[in-house]
Automatic annotation (TrEMBL):
UniProt entry tagged with the keyword Disulfide bond: yes
Renumbered residue ranges of the record's region Disordered: 25-49
Name of protein: peptidylprolyl isomerase
Similarity comment: family membership: Belongs to the FKBP-type PPIase family.
Highest taxon above the source species: Eukaryota
Organism: Liquidambar formosana
Domain PPIase FKBP-type: 119-218
GO terms assigned for molecular function: peptidyl-prolyl cis-trans isomerase activity
Predominant cellular place of this UniProt entry's protein: plastid
Biased composition (Low complexity): 25-36
Length: 223
């Protein structure tokens, strides 16, 4: 009887699937859910970490830009600014000779051109320092030589004598380079100079050292 029943059931199901379904036990379902939960949790952590890292990078970039802007906008040390502004190449040292006036001079390079003409305009490049070597002025930083009239009191006495010559000092020739050590009495004397708004670049009784490069005679001089 039982066999007959089973045969009938088999005949009524001719399209029996070739695979079988296995029931999922409650423990397996719980394990899968737990695994999925942990996976989602790890992905969430990774996402949060990535977002935090990106925010940190943006924050660090902002701090860097702020620091840079503060550095640019902050005032520099006055001496550093002055030296930077007038920075130039120093001429080699040479042994000074001294005129009766107290002017020290020596030729780094003797020129081969004309002598500096009395009362005429000439072009010179120069670097001016204090006795301690600190630069306070330079034509090189301005990228053009200074045009000045020589020998008629338009510049300090030490430059007139040091370039034009006199009292045992030979005149400079075009193309020449000369170092001058100018005592206070041939420079600005006891009074401060180069003053602006109460701030003076040159103190009183200062000894000055000039590196002079006699570039040429100014072409605009009257014939």
């Amino acid at each position: 009887m039982a066999l007959s029943t089973l045969t009938t059931v088999a005949t009524l199901n001719p399209f029996k699937p070739s695979f079988t379904f296995k029931p999922i036990s409650s423990s397996s379902s719980s394990s899968s859910s737990s695994s999925s939960f942990h996976k989602d949790k790890e992905e969430a952590k990774l996402s949060m970490h990535s977002t935090s890292s990106t925010k940190r990078q943006i924050f660090d970039m902002g701090i860097g830009l702020l620091a840079a802007s503060m550095l640019i906008s902050s005032p520099l040390d006055a001496n550093a600014t002055r030296i930077e502004y007038y920075a130039t190449v120093a001429e080699p040292s040479c042994e000074l000779n001294f005129a009766r006036s107290g002017l020290g001079y020596c030729d780094v390079a003797v020129g081969s051109g004309k002598e500096a003409p009395l009362g005429e305009l000439i072009n010179v490049h120069y670097t001016a320092r204090f006795a301690d070597g600190i630069v306070f002025d330079s034509s090189y930083k301005r990228a053009r030589p200074l045009t000045m009239r020589i020998g008629v009191g338009k510049v300090i006495k030490g430059l007139d004598q040091g370039i034009l010559g006199g009292e045992g000092v030979p005149p400079m020739l075009v193309g020449g380079k000369r170092k001058l050590q100018i005592p206070p009495e041939l420079a600005y004397g006891p009074e401060p100079a180069g003053c602006f708004s109460g701030d003076c670049n040159i103190p009183g009784n200062a000894t000055l050292v000039y590196d002079i490069n006699f570039v040429g005679i100014y072409s605009g001089n009257r014939k």
